[in-house]
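re: the backbone from monday

yeah here it is again, tokenized this time
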């Protein structure tokens, strides 16, 4: 699908055309311009040639039916993955990729292992949400939440990510509320500060995964440049400006970061009421194993006793490798 050229194609048309077209793509979820009968035949065939709506994809569904993953082939043949998670409470969350591959090379993450190919354009990001919007529409459902937790580091593709968010948020288009959109970052401080000053307030999640610099630098090489001190300075700047909570994601990896000492150190870091911790069950990769539920419970209780706001995230889609950190752009 290439709808980047849309504005240009419509430049000689009256203004309301653009609204009609937005409606067709993001609300009616048409697959082909010929479905949009409010447009002239001529314009429809022009759009079908210059801005086709085809999304090139192959679907795989998890056994639990609550997670679906799809592999989308981009115009240059590269592939990305996007995931739909159906929550019991009716939430329909789409997890989008922001890059093909990722340059950060976190040791626990499969995406990091495939290296970095390129940034996605804003429409390649939006297209992932449109894909699921089309599927959900068949059951009269719609995408309620979008999380930037797929392949890539969104803050290394800041401008395109923000452009995509603005389109997804647009009342004339998808109309997904800013509070229903979350960006997850390994912790790029310049962009955390930049996000604090945006006029659109999406949720911020930080992939923390370690409670001290020694361990974090081992697991996440990006920490060698950033350090926890600088990271928390940027996060506090963000909170001071926005007064919004920040979600810290903490993977529970067996015997790597799940000891009682780790929990106590993490509690020390969690010094502000707007800090929240999300403990994430690790999805096994070749290198590491998940913590036992018992270890997670002990860890969680240490944090709770010290007044930290902590939750355990529910794991999704392990069986189709659709879980976080398992997106590696390969068909099974
Ligand atoms: N680069 C961004 C966006 C990717 S989000 C970031 O780091 O936040 C992907 C999330 O999945 C991150 O929190 C990442 O740390 C986590 N993750 C990576 N490998 C995982 C695994 N094997 N199991 C569960 N979560 C994993």
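seq for it, each position gets an aa:
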């Amino acid at each position: 699908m290439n709808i980047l050229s849309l504005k240009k194609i419509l430049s000689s048309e009256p203004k309301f055309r653009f609204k009609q077209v937005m409606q067709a793509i993001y609300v009616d979820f048409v697959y082909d311009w010929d479905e949009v009968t409010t447009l002239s035949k001529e314009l429809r065939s022009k759009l079908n040639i210059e801005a086709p709506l085809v999304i090139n994809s192959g679907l795989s569904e998890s056994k639990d039916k609550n997670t679906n993953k799809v592999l989308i082939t981009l115009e240059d043949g590269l592939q990305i993955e996007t995931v739909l998670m159906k929550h019991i409470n009716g939430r329909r969350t789409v997890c989008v990729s922001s890059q093909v591959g990722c340059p950060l090379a976190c040791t626990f993450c499969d995406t990091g292992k495939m290296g970095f190919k390129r940034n996605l354009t804003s429409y390649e990001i939006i297209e992932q949400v449109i894909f699921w919007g089309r599927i959900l529409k068949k059951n009269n459902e719609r995408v309620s939440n979008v999380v930037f937790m797929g392949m890539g580091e969104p803050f290394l593709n800041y401008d395109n990510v923000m452009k995509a968010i603005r389109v997804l948020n647009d009342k004339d288009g998808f109309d997904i509320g800013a509070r229903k959109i979350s960006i997850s970052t390994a912790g790029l401080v310049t962009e955390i500060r930049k996000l604090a000053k945006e006029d659109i307030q999406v949720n911020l999640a930080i992939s923390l995964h370690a409670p001290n610099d020694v361990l974090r630098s081992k697991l996440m090489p990006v920490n060698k440049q950033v350090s926890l001190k600088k990271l928390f300075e940027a996060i506090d700047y963000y909170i001071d400006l926005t007064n919004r909570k920040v979600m810290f994601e903490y993977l529970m990896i067996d015997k790597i970061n799940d000891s009682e000492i780790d929990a106590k150190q993490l509690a020390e870091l969690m010094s502000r009421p707007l800090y929240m911790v999300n403990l994430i069950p690790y999805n096994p990769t070749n290198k590491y194993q998940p913590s036992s539920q018992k270890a997670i419970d002990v860890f969680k209780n240490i944090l709770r006793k010290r007044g930290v706001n902590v939750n355990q995230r529910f794991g999704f889609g392990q069986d189709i490798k659709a879980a976080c950190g398992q997106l590696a752009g390969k068909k099974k």
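Residues 272 and 308 are 9 Å apart (CA to CA). The radius of gyration is 21 Å.
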